[in-house]
Each structure stands twice: as structure tokens, then as C-alpha cells.
Queue: 3 jobs
Job 1
Amino acid sequence: MSVKPDIVLCGQLDQHTGFAWHNVISFLELTSSAHSAQLRRNITRKAYAVFMSQPSRRFVVALSLARQEFRLHIFDRSGAIHSLGHSLHRAADLFTRVIYTLTFGSPDVLGFDPTFVDPTLSPSILYRPRSAPALQMSRAIYVRETAYTVLRHIYVSHLIRGRGTSSWLVKKGKKHYVVKDYWTHKGRKHTEEQILVKIKGLLGVSQLVEAWTIQTEGADETTDWLRPAFLVGNTEFETRLHRRLLLSPVGDPLVQFHSLQELVSIFIDIVQVHFVLVDVYNILHRDISINNILMFICATRWAAATHDQEERENVIAEKKFRRGLLIDFDYADVLNAGKQGVSSGDRTGTIPFMAIDLLREYNSPSKDFTHTFSHDLESLIYVLVWICILYQAPNEIRSDRTIEQTCLKHWALAKTSTDIRHLWDQKVGQLSTRSVLSEFTPYFEPLKPAVTRLYKLIQSSCDSGDKSILNHAAVTEVLMDAFNTVTEVSCGAKNAKRTWQRLQKEPAPTGSRYYSEGPNARRRVM
């Protein structure tokens, strides 16, 4: 990252790369000005750099020295703690003890995770339960007393405060798994582990292999461990519990689809899985986003209730399409009576993909608001729109514009309450104008008719107040039509544009190979 520390405490530096946030143990911020909000922001940015470079880091300790007054700053998944100021001269002994601790303290006291072995970090830590065999010095992560070799890092949350989720691809023997490490809200009524146990065996969702609450000195590790007694229970600092899940199967990011038809098929899978969760298991996901939808190789043929579904299964088997995988059930909850939704009082979801109703309620939540399955389906539609605008081909970000130059700018950058209100206004306007369609990259032009129909469902649902209009059957019908008729376009922005222009100029042949719905919606059946 571009931010630079004033004074840094780090381990041995790489002789080729030199300084990197990956090596930072702690840092000191110096200024000749008095302590200010700007100073805290600078320290927070540098703490963020540490967390992003060290995904296994539990917390970060920093110092600041302003006009001969020093303060201690601690950042963890419940937020930040800033100490009172102390004179460098009158409290020289205290300052010396702090420096001594940062220099010679044990790694776990400095924020490193003793259950994660990483020789590339400084200092490196080797955690080994008595019953576990010695490890070679390679990256490894523990789930209870079993060590799993880390193959690569998959995902890290881009926030300091919150769940702080990190995911790792690991293996034990010849089997591959995903380890999800996160800090969940301690007061959550239904834990992710409980949800995953309930839906165990359902195709298209994460399967729980093992769950573990990390232990510190024989007790569950929480963010309260760092807080003075008078701050424990303070409403500003929610208590977060350090959890680790071992999951299968291993999935690929959604944007790595191979064709438009495979992409549409994956969305159909997710709608079907979501329907089963609601109808059979009484579970609502509540956080549909692009990071929570993956693809995986599945040799098992899924159940088909209709002829169209049977035909799709045949296409999937013939073309070896991957299947949709819905993950991250930390915000999932049990439906209320009548399976109408979840009335929990909290607003959940990932902001860019939040339903319009959820954005409206975000700043001033009403107690009687209900998060329904239609809100999840609306989020799923926004995921599809996100891909169609930001990508120019499978796994290829568009090169002609940045996200700030698209209509998704406010989707991606919304943070404050004012931003959320603007995003709500924008999404409401986009329902009627369909302005998102004009920003689809050429590769995704064939999906415009489907997205138009999906937006009509959202609009009808919002205008009438009848959330049942946006239902699983209606969304599946639109996606099945797209699956059966979508035009495959050559990958790459230039090839996609040329192919689409050629298709528009070609005379429409008679026969069943084409389906027409307006001059800009002709799609070839594969």
C-alpha cells in the first residue's frame, strides 16, 4: 500500500523487496502538532495496511507521539481503542515499558495468531498441541488440534471493524478444503455452525466439516480480552467471538464462468437452492452478494421436477458446466411464522447489492420491518447487473472505464448515511429508466432482455407493495428463457462488440434457431 509509517518495528526484511507492511509488528506515528482527528485517521489507515497485508492478524498495536505526548492505539474487529495522552518526560518509565513490550513481547500479545503458522511473518510462530506431530516450516492453520497446509489465501475482508473474514485454501493429505476464519457477533441468535448443521447434505451450499471457537488461555477468544473492564459491555464495542470453520467443496469465483450460458445456469442454481432453503429448511440467507456465490464441479445430477429442468441438466452434463454454490451463512436466520421473512431488527447484507427496501430502512430502521426472500432475490439480480457492467468477458474487468465512471459508482462507494440515501434514490430511479442497461459491456448485450424482465419484477413488487411478485418461480422463468436462448459472444471486448454487431446485421433466418423479442434482443440458441 502507498501509506508510509514514520517509525516501524518489524522483523527481518527481505533483501530483495525491502520494507513491506507484511513485515510490520507495530509502528509509531510522529507529529509536531497536537493530537487530532486527522492523526487518528492516519494511524487507522496504517493499521488497515497491516490487516490487509497480514490476513491472519488478530489485532494491531500502534503508538503516536504528538508534541511530546504519547498515546497507545489498539485496533481489532470491534473497533479502535485510543488511550489518554501521557507526557513523554513525566511518564518516561511507562513509555519505556511500552516500547519494551512491543520489542520483546510474545507474538500472541502483539496481535499475531498462535494457531496460524507462517514462517514469512515476523515473528513466526509455531503453535502445536501436545497431541499433534511436528510440522515442517510451511504455512499451516489449525482447526482444533489438526494442522492443515495452506495452499493460498482466497479472501480477506476490506474492513477493520466487523467480521474480519479471511478464507484460505488448505489441504490435508489429498483432500482440499476451505478454512473460514472470522469474528462473529457473540449475541447472534443462530450461529453459522447451527445453520450449516441444519442444511447438511443440501447440494449447492457449503458443507461443514469442522467448527472451532479459538481458545485463549483456556477460554473462548473474544474482543473483550483487549478491553479494560470499564469498556466491556459498552454498547459502542460489540463483543466478537473468534471462530474458524472447515468447509467443502472448494469453489471458484463467480466471474470465472466460461460462457454466458454457464453464468445463467449458475444463477438458476442459486435461485433453486435459495428456494429449498426457504421452503424446506425455513432459512433465509440475507447476504446475497458477488463474493457469496461461487461455482464448483459437481458430478451429481441435480433433481429436476419439470421437462425444462431435465433438459437443462442434460446441457449441464454435456457441456460440463459447473454448479452454483451459496456460501457464508453468518447472517442467515430462521424464518418467522408463515415463512414470510425475518423480523430481527437488524439490517443485513452487502451494501452494493442491498434491496431498495433495505436501503430505505438502513438509516432509520423500523421495528416491524421484515427481511423477506424477495429482498434476497433482488440482491441476486443486482449481482448479475454488477457483472454485466464491470466485466467485459469472463474474469476480465472492463478496460475502457473504471467503476467510478459507471453507474455503479454509488453502489461501490456508499459508506455514510448520506451515501446510502443517494444509493436508494439512484436504485429507485434505475428501476423506471433501466439506465443500467446502457452500460452493459458488449459481451453481456445478450442478457439485456432478461435483465429488463427482472427489473420489471422488482418495479412491480415495489410499486404494488406486494413482495410476492418477485418470487422464485418468476425469476427462474426469466433465467430459464435466457438459458435456452442466449447468444454466445466471443470473449474480449473487441471480439464481443464485433460479434454482436454482426448478429444485428444478419437477416433473421426462419426456423427454431432464433428467438426474437425486439430489434435489440435477438438471441441465438446454442
Job 2
Amino acid sequence: MPPVRDPGRSRPTQRADCVPQLPCDEPGCNRWFRNLSGLTQHKRTYHPSFSRYPEGFRNNPGLLGSVEHEDHVADRSSPLPDHASDGYQGEDLLDREREAMSAKFIGPGSKVYRNYHPGLNARKCDDRGQFLPDDAPPPPCAEKVPNDWNPYHNQLEFELADFLFTHVEMSAKKINMLLEIWATSLLESGGQPLFMNHADLYGVIDSTRVGNVRWENFTIQYAGEERNNDPAPWMSNVYDVWFRDPREVIHNILANSGFTDELDYVPYREYDASNDQRCWQDFMSGDWAWEQADRILGDDPTTGGATLVPVILGSDKTTVSVATGQTDYYPLYLSIGNVRNTVCRAHRNAVVLIGFLAMPKTTREHASTPAFRRFKRQLFHSSLTRILHSLCRPMKVPETVLFGDNYYRCVIYALAAYIADYEEQVLLLCIVRNWCPKCLAHRDNLDENALRRSREHCDTVIEEFELRKLWETYGIVGDIVPFTNDFPRADIHQMLSPDILHQLIKGGFKDHLVDWVERYLVHIHGKSEAEKILDDIDRRIAAVAPFTGLRRFPQGRHFKQWTGDDSKGLMKVYIAAIEGHVPKDVVCTFRAFLEFCYLVHQNVITEQMLTEIDDALSRFHRFREVFPNAGVIETFSLPRQHAMKHYPYLICQFGVPNGLCSSITESKHVKAVKRPYRRTNRFKALGQMILINQRLDKLTAARADFQQRGMLNGTCLSKAFEVLGSHTNRISEGQDAADEGDEQTTSYEEDAGDTLDDPMAINAHVSLTRKYQRARAKNVGALAAELGVPEIPTILCRFLHSQLHPTDTRNPEDIPLYECPFFDGKIRVYNSACSTFFAPSDLSGTHGMRREYIRSCPMWRNEGPRYDCVFVVTDPQADGMRGLDVACILCFFSFKYQGTLFPCAVVHWFDRIRDGPDTATGMWIVRPSRRTHNLRNIAIIHIDTIYRAAHLIPVYSSHNIDPRGIKPHHSYDMFHSFYVNKYADHHTFEITF
């Protein structure tokens, strides 16, 4: 089919004299109608007024309400013309379902409740689609034998195949070498290795049945007219597109037993039980899912009881090789809105590679021609239409699908969201670059209030105006057909999701604000002086103390290739580094921008937080005027920065943005594209990459299948010991003991922290690491000498008294020493402790748990000492920093007294300087605490009082210290006041208000 516009298929059919004149006055709705009949039916279906409440809620109708959030669009309400009314009396199609709506409390403590959609409520059914009672057992299915490892012979064979292919990524040549060495070692005993060679290994993996969605391909070729006798090369080329059936991929996701407890089956609206405020979290909590369910029921009431599966797509070009000639690929990914955000961000294979799109290239002579540009755009949309074709029918008629809980459900699909950066959004929406993809604001004044884009509006103006008018007035490329025009209820204008990575982190922060600061310094001080100031800013950044997940910039920031992680790392420390070199309004601009970024990234967003987001955006717009006032920039019409204006509305539609961020798809590039490419021989690499991805998917699916059947409980070694008997069990115990003796935290740092898939049992917990330091102090006197704190024995006595007499309210300093127990026994000193806490807004496990290490050691990586700071809970009843104190860990140690083990820490306290955070940076300021005679305020605390690690940044502007010679491990010793860095990570931002 020719990739050109088909007027008969895509152009609207209405006449010019029947243009819709009646707007829907509901906030956030862009629909227009020709008469009151259509408007009334639309409002009854998509904006119902709930007049019936669930049992127990009749006296409080506010529990069922919701707050619609405008993204500052123009008011579209207008009086109805006299000819609009036609006396239509419509029937509310959802009356019966609303009567069945009920509220359900979620989570411990009944702090949150949800109203689930009453129509598309995911009823269980049999394989023929017949609904079952709620308490019916799962339909019978083929039972799998618990010890059936097919196509592998046993667990050892599967674990070896998975280890070599997935974890080690060993090449075929090295696999053969390993198996040959193994076979040689078994000659005397007459044994054989598990695999003969790499072909044997690959053959077993390829014969795995689960997770097998085969790859297909189709070709596209230009079929338009050739305007001259010398056609461009691209017109005769054939373009291959490789893909997997998205419908089968979705079936595999839904059937994955590992996702059973991590799926939202029904659209819902979530409320805080304490104040009835609406909360947004995962995709199904957004208004899009609820309204889509209403629309499906309105179109076909027989779909009641079905399960809505929102389809989420994402695409982005990626470069895998530059040095040997630029090699690019164009992967297409798929996920579903039912999977919760923590699963997607934990990289648990909920985001699946489903295709490689074609990237046509041509000679320089033809690359900029309108015909070639048009062909590239339409090739992209036509390819998507072909790839997603199998979803078209089940978007109208539900199909029966088996889920991971062994129940069948009737599933109906809908194209929901598309994850893309700005360049990709321009291509998807068929708009002109520098225009906003979400609203009709003119590109020369993007901050003006304007209507949101919609398919109805786009089709109407395409019908009415010529292509040049569309291009110049509306920013629309009118001769391209969006792929969503071929699917029911799909509108690409509504599908575009917020993109924190490219719009905020790379765009608004790195490409805009940081660049503006440098231009400001040059404009005010001249180039020579500005470079000196920028060097000083670099030295300040390099002198910041180490912290888990903090990116280092030891040589400054002057490198060409910036990654998203580089920009994220700079965001955490930049505001403190520039203070004193720029006016206060510049610092306030950064504060407002950072607070906006951190607020929209949180795992749960409430109505109150939406107000805070609006406030941060308003402050950002106000303070950023310092740049044009200084003559640094001329306009704020920047699409990526302008996108901030639409975040409140998009949060209400799709839930929190961190579940739809392009950082998820970019991280998938590494696993699905870049690493497979490195495993190829570079000759026709795409075919090899597809085969590698297919084998990886089969191994992942096989592991999930074996885990579901309980076949992977324990290691291969532990199971062998169980078979061989008690003697080898003692060997196993010895091995376990040896493992426990290994110190995991002294030789390397997990820079990004660890993610844990364990369920949340407690908000935070700190424990000492496994191995104590045999070369360090072994008694209290030696510890006092090592730390240079002679009063340690006295402090320990008072600590013991507080532990043994917790009800004694006296100040420990006032307690006579003779009343305190004396300890002079053995102690064990540790270099680190492990903090585990609930931080779903950061990179964490599927249940939101995260782990980091707190260091306190005299030598770290052969560079110098490292003594981390921590938050200590001193007032559990107070909120934020008023309930936390900051302390520097001088030493971790433990001892036993009267049979009780006391894990402790020697700390140096910090004092808060003010009763609130700094007005410019938004961060609290602390200083090292001193006692009489200027002695350090040292204490011993139980590690149970430690919440997690804290990060401090020096207040450089208040010191006359040149950071030129200061190393990161000296940072806490050289300065006398510090910011409590609330931008260190998202969890810190949430607790240090």
C-alpha cells in the first residue's frame, strides 16, 4: 500500500455548513457538537453525574466526587444558540452499573479506599466466555508435573543454560571452550558435561515452549508517482519491518503468574480516607481508564463484565555503534496499563520489545526533499498500523484470555498511551517542529492559553483549510494519516504521555536552565571571568561528599556526550554549587523547577500535591523572568519546557508520570538492543539480535513457569545435599557460614543502591553488615583511642542506662555515673550498615523496597576515610525534619551486655540553624554540634533509631575556603555549615520538608 494520505478514509465527512458549534463545558473535555442531542448524549455517557451512592456512603456524597484539574486552557463555555435544542431525551446507559458501585478499603490501616468501575469489572469466566460466580474455583486446566523440567533434563541443566546465556552472555566460542574443559575433567570418571557444545545448548533453549512469540516481517515500498525519469534511490528500495504479534505478547503478560498480584484488573478512583482527597498512582487510577470504560459500555452495553487492557506503546531510535560507523535501530516496545508502575520500573519484563521499525536513508541530494520527508512519516504510521492490526477486532469484541491466576476473563483492548520524546511526538502527531503536541498554542507564544489538540478538531481543520494554512496556523502536517485513525476509540492527541526524562531532566534542566546560567555569567562578567566562575562551580560539585546513587564529576562537566544519568546527577547538587555566583532569583528558579520535578515523580500524587505542583510551576514562571530581564534569552516558547503546563491534567488522566517515562524504554534499549548487538558478529546483526531476544524471552518465561510450580526453591547445591544426606548437609552449613562471613560492602559500592522484591513489612530497618573488622578496636578503651574521643567509656555507660531504663526522663548528662552500668568487655567494629526502607518513588523492587549501605570506615577505596551522615528519628510524632536529626557516623560497633546484643553507632550530632528551610534553596541548613569548651557533641545511639543515610552539601557561599584542593572525603571536616540535600533522591525529598 502506498504510504500516502487516503482522502476517502481519513478526511471527515461533515459539510462546511455543519461545523460543530456546541462545546462540552466539562473541564478537560475537547468535544464539540452540532446540536443539543449529541451534546446531551455525550454528557450522559462520558460525564455522568452520580446520583446513586454505594451502601454506607449516602450521607457523604463527597466520597464519590472527583476534582477535575485544568491545565490552564481557555474557558470554552458559551451560551447555547436558539436552534441548538431538539428536545432530545436520552437514556442513561450506566444506571444499572452505577447502582452496583461499591467502595473498598485498600492496604493496612484502611487509610485508602477505592471506587471500582461498576461496568468493566473483570468478571471471571470459563474458556468459552461464560461468566462464573465470584467464589467459583478456576476452570480445570492441564496440570504440569512438579518435576517436569522439559526441555531441560533437570534444574542443573536449566540453571547452567540461563547462567551462560543470560547472565554471563558468553559467546559460542567460549561456551565450546568451557564445555571442552569440563568434558576433559570428566574423562576419568566416565561422565559427560550437561551440553556437548554451543549448538546443543542453543537447541535446548530454542525448544522451550513457553514465552514463544515468533518474529515475523513484512516489506514496504514506495508506490507513489515518480515525477521524473531519474527517481531517487529511496523510491526503489524495499524496507523490512520485523515484529511480533502484540496480541500474543499481551496474552503472555496476562498469563505470567509473577504478575498476578501486580495487576489492576478494573479502573478505579482512589481516595484518602482521612480527608476524601483523590489520589493518583498507577495507570488504572487515572481518568482515562474510567472514561474509556464508560465509552466502551456506551458503545456496546454487552461488554459489561469485561476486562479493559490499555495498550501502552513506546519507540525511540537508539545508536549502538559510532566508532565503526553509526549503526542505529528503531525498536518498538509494548506494555499494558494493568501492570503497576513499580513492576515496570523494576525492569521485570513488563515492557516487551515487539518490533524493529524501518529507518529509510537516502543521498544528501534527496534527504531534505518534501517527498522523502513525507514518505518517512507515512512509512512510520503505516508500519504501526500493520504491526497492531491483530488488536483491531478485540478492541470492539472482547476475547477470552487466560490470566496468571488460572482464571479466564473477557478482554477488550484500547490504545491508551504512547511513550516518546519530543522528536518522536512530532512524528506521531504529524505536527510541525516547535509546536506543542498537546495544545493549539502558537509556536511563537506557547505559554498562551489554548485548546487541547484532538482528533475531531484535526479532522475538521484538515477538511476546511489548505496544507499551507494548516502548517502555518495550526502546526499540522495535513498530508499524513496517523496510525490511530485505523483503530476504534484511538486518538494520538490524547495518547501522548508526560516524559520526565526528556522534557524535564534533559530538556528543562540541562538544555535550558544550566545553559542559561552559563550564558548569564558570560553576559554579566565577560567570558574570561565567567570561565573562572564556572571552574569554581565545577570544583564545588567535585568536592561534594559521596552518597549512594550520586554521580561523580571529578573532571568537571565539560564533556560532549551527556546521558540522562549525568543530568540526574547534576540536578542533585547544582543548586548549592551556583549559590553565591548568581542572583537569588536564579537560585529560586532552580528551586521551583526542582520541586516541580520531584513532586511529579512521586509514586502517589494527591489533590493537595497537585496544588503544590501548580504552585511550583507558578513560582518557576515568575522567577525565570530574571533571564530575559538580564538579556540572556529572548523567548520562553520552548516545547519541552512548555510541556510542564500540561502535567497536572496528564496526571489526572494517566496516573503518576514515573510509570510512563521514557527512562523505562531507554533502559530497555540496553537489554533488548545494545547488549544483544554487542553479542553479534556485526554482519546482518538484526537477525542475530532478534534470535538473542527470543532466547532471552524463552529463558525468562521458563524461569517464571518453574517458579510458579515451586521447582526453584533452593539452589542446585542445596538440593543435591538433600539427596546425598546429612554429611554433605554439614558441608552446606559450612559453606553458608563462609558466605555469611563475606563482607559485601568493603570492596565496592552499589552506586545505585539495591532493589528488593520483598514485601513491605516495615517502613525502614537498619542492620549491621555480616563481617566485623578484626583489625580494628576490640574493646571500649581501644575504640576511644582509635576515634580520638576519650569520653567514649562515659558515653557508653549513659547509653546503657538509657537502654535498660527507657522510662527515665532525665537528661543523660544529669545522671550520675555511679547509677549507670559499667561495661569493659569485648566489642566488634563494623565498616558499614545496611538500611532497608520503603521508597517506591526511587528505583526499587516490585513492592517499593530499596536497600542502601551506610559507610563508616577509616579508608575507602584507598582514597581516604568515609564517614556518612544519617537521619536519626528523635521525635516520631513530628513531621519531616522536625522529627529527624542529622548525625555523622564515626563508627558502627556491637557488644553484649547481660546476654543482650546491642548494635550501636558512635555519632557526631548536627544542629539545625533555623526553624525552617532556607528560603532560596528550600533546604534545611545544619552545622556540627558543639558542647562546652568547643568539644564535639558525641553520642552513642542504637541503630534502630537510624532511618536512612543523609547527604549534606557545604554552604559554599558562606565560606572563604577554596574548594580547589578539597577531596570529597574531606567535605564534612572542612566546612562549618551544610545544606541537608533534599534533592539527593526522591525519598529524601519526601521526608525532609
Job 3
Amino acid sequence: MATEALVSFAVERIGEMLIQEASFFKGVRGQVDRLHKDLRAMQCFLEEAGKKQEEDSRVRNWVSEIREAVYDAEDIIDTFILNAQSLRTHFFPERAFKKLTNRYKVGKKVEAIQLGLQDISNRREALGIKNIGEGTSMSRSAQMLQDLRRSTPHTEEHVVVGLEIEADKLVNQLIGGDQRRRVISLVGMGGIGKTTLAKKVYNHTQVLKHFPDCRAWAYVSQDCRPRDVYMQIIKQICSSTKEQVEMAEKLQEHELGAFLHEHLKDNNRYLIVLDDVWSPSDWSCLAKRSSNDPDCLGSVFPDGGKGSRILLTTRYKEVASHADVRSIPHEMRLLSKQKSWDLFRRKAFLDIDAESYLPDLKELGEKMVDKCNGLPLAIVLLGGLLSKNMSHIEWKKVHDNMSAYLAKEGSQMGVMTVLNLSYIDLPSYLKPCFLHLSLFPEDYVISTRKLLLLWIAEGFVLQQNRQSMKDTAEIYLNELINRNLIQVVRTSFNARVMECRVHDFIRELAIEKAKEHNFIGTNIVVDPHLFPSTSSSLFSSKSRRQSIYSDFERYASIEHYSTPYLRSLLFFNLGGICRISQLDFITKCFKVLRVLDLEGLGIENVPSVIGELIHLRYLGLRHTGLKMLPLSIGNLRNLQTLDINNLKRVPDVIWKITNMRYLYIEEQGEDDPLKIDTVQNLQILSGITFDQWIRNNSSKLTCLEKLKIEGRCELVEEVEFSNSIAKLHSSLKSLYLKASDESSIPSLAMSSCPHLCKLDIKGRMQKLTETFQFPLNLSQLTLEACRLDCDPMPILEKLPNLLTLRLRAGSYLGKEMHVSANGFPRLQILQFLRLKELVLLNILKGAMPWLMQLEFDDFKTKIFGLNELLNLVEVKILCFSTPRERLLLGFFLRTKVSFWDLTWMAVAKGEIHICRRKA
């Protein structure tokens, strides 16, 4: 549960502070230490409490009290450290007196919390919830919900829109292709129509003919019970007497699985639908699979080589890949705008033409359908609700409070109830990350780089073995994506997620849960149309996080003294210019702030008092127009992330911030000295200039994994620069060199950096020779503006582990490129962009055996050997807007891909995307 994780993070942080801030705790260390131990003891119980919290209000209230006690402890300790720090500037007599006063006060407050915890513990027993972890029986409401959601193939939905093409594809997969038993998975978020599509396919005429004798549909659910699933199947495929069924019901689970196996084995072929599978372990349990070998089918569902199929529906991609690693999951898509309207129209207006109703009903309907963002369940519930009353007044009521109506409509089958199952199923460590999504505006495209750094700053990501926190955070992100709680917007060439967003209903679920846990304030939008008052009561006094979407001036004018323990403050989509005096309230009112993100807010200056926010871990100032930072920024000793660009000058105080891990200072205006070699925890350094870099002792940066150096480099001595990179041999994984103007990138030998796997070079290079010494583990290489006049392929094709090669504008000025046989043994992605002089690319047979994706933008280049690339499945051609380009495109299609067995071709936004089946 989320509270368990939040409490765990808070307890962990208190423990860290006891170590890191030991000097501040003289005189009260014993009390704070005992408090830490008491909180750890409570933490052990929370895991059990979480299992019952959803159903028992007493447990829910008890857990809430623990959470508030932990928050209070955290607030007391943070404030004590803040006060102790501020006293260092006072004269001795005054400082000594105030120290004693502060220690006395914090001692009393800690004592009060300990008494409160004791009271909480005593009341747990008095309430009779001492052993709430005992027993595994399902709660009454959970059982009722499961019964309501139980699917059968006989209740097929008659109004189905937008699934025709998907149904045809699935039917072909079920009745054709490989004769081995295959598991075909339908994957998608709750309410997207997986079960509806499965029913449509299950009852399809061709499927009925292909599986005439042995078909069965079984509902699995979160409470997976293999014995019940086996009995559901047996009752449908066996023509058993009542006595035989009763006998089967007496069998043990493993005996029942063996009985089912034998019966399926005796049939010609079978089709089994397993609806709503929640985890890989559930699949393994159902199939009685005891091995991770993809060829291990398990002992229940046999493979007779007769074309048997299992159709599985799930919310999680991991379940699909676990069930059958050789089958590509069928990922359900949200409905288009037109399909959404068609579905709504047929549900709301039934058989009557929508045009015969008043235009204002149609207008309201279109607005509400847009809010559903293509989610079929929401559209169906909305249409059914509105079909009961065709008055404008009723439709307007629903329009103004859609979420509440959709949550209520269908009782326990409402949209939020269905989506809430995905939240309940989240492991505790993912729940705070999910709740954090509630801070972002509706339909906001989120930078994943920023999101991961925010999670780290919030303390949601714990160090695991030798893995970096950023890598761990990325694993968390991918888990939420695989659970269909986050949607991917854009990926990089190597398939890493760069941008994402959250569906509106998922976001509303996150907001609802976040408010329950005091994770965010009561309101997170300051909108003068909605809230004409300027009262600070807009926000809860217990608010830990706030995000503001509009009207910065109005938000700044509110009195914020009722929320002194705010930990995160994020601003979005504000624009405009902010005066320095308007930022003063942040440092005056939110003294224990950990996260401050002002990205996009026009700022002339940052007040020097920002240096008093000593608990700050994340400071986001990107795209603010800020040109100078105050020297007091060096006082932020806990700062982990500083994200800013286009500064005129970076103050030379970064060396003081020894906890800094992620430093982004791209596009500096001036090349002044910048000492950073004391920041030994630094993992990402982006934007340091060549001259600044060589003035530092890089051997001290033992944790540096990602480095971007930019600016002028004509005065940089090559041997010195090469040695400075070589000193990062134990940690460096990614290197980006960007030279400005006409200066040349210094030559460097990188073979001494065995972990370097990504290299980007933008700028003139004198020559690409064997002496450049690329590291053997290099997997991604990008060259741009290098102005090479010799064919780089004879050198690059020898890199044994290169997976992605991108040659961009100005990287090569020659006319021909030749790839020899056996060249690029592992290359998968090849990109040519704006190589204006290139007229010939010759690929000899045997080269690039694993190339899967080719992207280019110039049709005059002749490519020989394309038909020898047997694994090439995707070609992307950019920029064909002029008549000449369209003519060249037609020539390309006739001459170069005419032999392909195309699966699809898409033309949009100035590019053509061609895919084919593997040869």
C-alpha cells in the first residue's frame, strides 16, 4: 500500500539524517534514535495492515494515524536542523542559549510523538485489530466485485465499435500459422475492451468451425485459484454426468490439473480463453509451469502439434511475454475520436439518428466523449447513462461532473472501480510513484528524464546493490508502463521512453488516492474562474505537495503560512515574467521544501535567500530565461539535481554542493572557470565546457556515468583532454562532445573506457582513423557536422557490439560508402539524415546480418544490397513534400521495396513508414 511505502521512505530518511547531520543532534540524539526505532516497529505492522485497509475503515483510520505521526516526526526533525543551521551565523552567547532552547523544544515534541505512537499501538489492540494479518479469505465487497466482473462468452456485447480489424487479425492467429500450441495475449488498461474483443473472437463463425469440439472460457481474476479455473474448463469441455462432476470436485488441485491435461491431449485441438490474468506467477501456477525455459509448456495445457490455442487477456505486458515468449502480444489501442463518437452515438441515441436531436445535445455529447479519451468502458457507461434522459439540463449536469457520474454509474462496475483494481495490485514501492502522477496537468506530455529525477528527489527510489538510482527509477517507470498505467508518447532510437502521459481517468484515480494519503493538497489548480477567493484555505494544512497550473501572480498573493511543511512545489504552463519579489514567499513560507520546479516561468532573478532552503534536493530552472544564479546556491548542501540552461555564467560554487548527482547547465554564455571535482557523487554532468573540464581533476569523479562537454575547443590540448576522459575508465557509460563554431573535436583514445556504450560527436573531426580507438563495448554511435572526407565505414564496420549508427547532417562529405562482407556484425538500426553529397551506399552480401531498421531522407542515393538484408523489417523515409520528392519516392517504392512482402505502409507528417514480414 502507498502508506507503507511513504512511511518506509520517511523512516529511512530519518535514519540517514541521524548519520549525516550527527553534529546537529547533540543533546537530543538519544530521543530521536528511540523515535526512529519506534517508527521502524510500526513499519513492520503496516505491511499486514495494508492487506485489510481497503475493506476495514478502522484499519484505514489506524494506518492514517501512523502516517500522520511519521509526517510529524519528519517535520520536527527537518525544522530542528533548519533552526540549528541558521544559528551558526549568531554570536556565541545568543547561539548557545538558542541551542539549548531548541533542543528542549524538540525533545518535548519527540516525547509527544512517542506518547502518541504508544496510544496508537494500544488502541489497535482495543479495537480488536491486533491480528489483522491472519487469514487469507477475500473480503465481502471484494468477492462481490469479482462476482460482478466474472465474464462469460455468452453475454456478447451487441454494440461493438472499432474492433473489426483487430478481430480479423486475432481470428487469423487462432486458426492459422504455427501448428504448435500458442498463447495469444490481449494486453491493455482496464476498460479498454479486452474481454469484449475476446468474446467477439471466441464466438466468431470461423473460430467455431476450426474448434468444433473443444472450447472453454475461464475467468481468472486477481484472486487466482487454479482449482476453480480447472473446474470451469472441465465443465465446458467434458460431457460429464453429475456424478462425474462431483467426483472431479473431490480431486486435489494437481490431480484435477492432470485430469484436464489428459482430456485436452485426447482432443484434436482446443481453444481455451483465460480472461483477466494478473501476474506471471498466476500463469505459471495455472499451467503448472516449473521452468523459465520458453519451450516449457507446463503440465496442464499440452502441445499436440495440432494448432491448439490459448487466448489470454491481461493488463500487464509482462504476463503476455511470460506466457509465450514467441508470440507478440496484441496491444489494445484507445478508440479514435470518430470511433469514440460512433460508439457513444449508438449507446446514447440507440437506434435514433443523433442528428434528429437538438444540436446542443450533440455538442455536449462530443465534449463529454472527448473527455473519455477513447476509453470504451467510459464511453459505454456515459452513453448508457445519458440514454435514460434526453433533456439538456440532465446532460449538462453530467457534463459538469463527469467523473462522479461515471464512478457511480454501474455501481461497483464504474470506471474508477475497475481502474482501482490496477492500483490495488501495485507493489508498495510503485504506489508513491503512481500517486506522484497526480501532480501533472491533464494531457500533459511528461519528460521521463525529469520524472525520474523528481522521484529520486522525493525519496521514492532506494539504492539497490550497485545499480544507480536513475536506472532503478527507470525500471519503476517501465513497470508502470507495462501495467498500462502510463502511456508512451515518444521513444528514442534504442527504444528508451523519452516522453509519456497519463490517461485522464488514470490521472483522476491518482488524484483521488493521493488526497486520501495527504500526498497532495485539497486543490491543485489555482483558477480564478473556479476559485474567486484568495484565501489560503484552498490548500490543506497537511498538504505535502502542490502543483500550480495557472495564474502565478494570484498564487503568489495567497497567504501560505497554513502549509509550512510543504515538501514539493511544481509550476506548469505559466509563462509570463515573474519579478524577484514575487518569489520571496517560497523561501519565507516553505522552509523545508525538497523539490522546487519553476520550469517555463519567466524569471529575471532568483532571490539570494534561496540558499536558506537547505533541505532542497531538486531545483528546476530550465526555460526560465534566467541568466545569473546567486552565490548562495552553494549553500544548498543537500541538492541532488540542478537543471538549468542558457545561463550567462555558472557561479563557481558548485564545488560546495557535495551531494549533487545530476547537474544540467547546457548552453552557457561565458566560459568562466567552474570547479566540480569535489562533487564526488556526481553521476550526470551535462553542459560543462571543454575549458572548464580540463581545469578539473577528473580522476576524482569516480561515479560519473554520463558526460556532455560543449563549447569552443581550439585551445584544448589533445593529450591532456584524452587523458582526462581516460581517467573515467571505471564509470563512464555515455559521452557527448559538441564543438561550437569551426573548432575541431580533440582526438581521443577511448579504448581505456570499457563501460562506454554510447558516444555522440557533433563537430569537425580532423580524421577518423584506427587511432581514434573506439571502445569495444560501444553500442550507439552518432556523428554530426564532423565533415569527414574519407569513407568512415571501413573503420566503423569493425565495431563488434555496435547496435545503432546515426550519420547526420555534415558528418560525411564524400559521395560513396561501402560496407564489406561481414561488416557491422550486430548492427540493428542505421540512420542517414541530410548527407547531401552521398550518391551511393553499397552493402555487400553478408554485411549487416541483423539490421532491422533503416532511416534516410534522400532518394537520390542509390542503395545496393538492400534485398540481402533478410532481417530488415522497417524502412522510414523522411521529407517528401515537393513534387520532385514524391516522384523520387515512387521510384524508390517500385525499385527497392517491390520485392517485399509488406505488412503495412503509413504516410504522415512528412514521412513514410514501411514495414514488411521477415524474409
